[in-house]
Specification:
162 residues, mainly alpha, two-stranded antiparallel sheet, globular
Amino acid sequence: MQRAVDGLRTVELLLSSNDKLPALSPSLLEVVQNDKSTRARIRLAALLTPFRWILFEEKKKKIPLVDSVIRDGLKLGSTNFYLNGIPPLFKGAELIRKGFPDPLTTGSRAQIGILLRNTSIHYPVVGAEWSSSLFFALVQEVVDCWSDEGLDGTISYSKQGT
């Protein structure tokens, strides 16, 4: 459960103006800060972070646990694009991570264009904007690096296994 709390803390940390972290690009934050349903999807997805890799078998099909939690557990369905908006956030974060394995280098325009064609990253019909997908990929990356607060109250990060 600590991972769920870490996910939500990461979202709030990145959305707040914090002197301890470098500022994020306004174009990256615009949709997440201004659209209530996008913000709600990001927060719920962050809480579901511990379950992102878990699959279960239902009717001989492997289904991500995140889908089932939203559909069957919380019974949210397609309200605010939860069911068709949150699972693509996880898929998009993984695609971005695989597309840019070294975060210090940027990809070519062609590589970025290919990623933007993927509906898990950019599909406005279900509220999936490229900026919210990129923001959530950043949240996932920070959660993977998260460690407890230091004794002096500063937040420390260390890369943990993915």
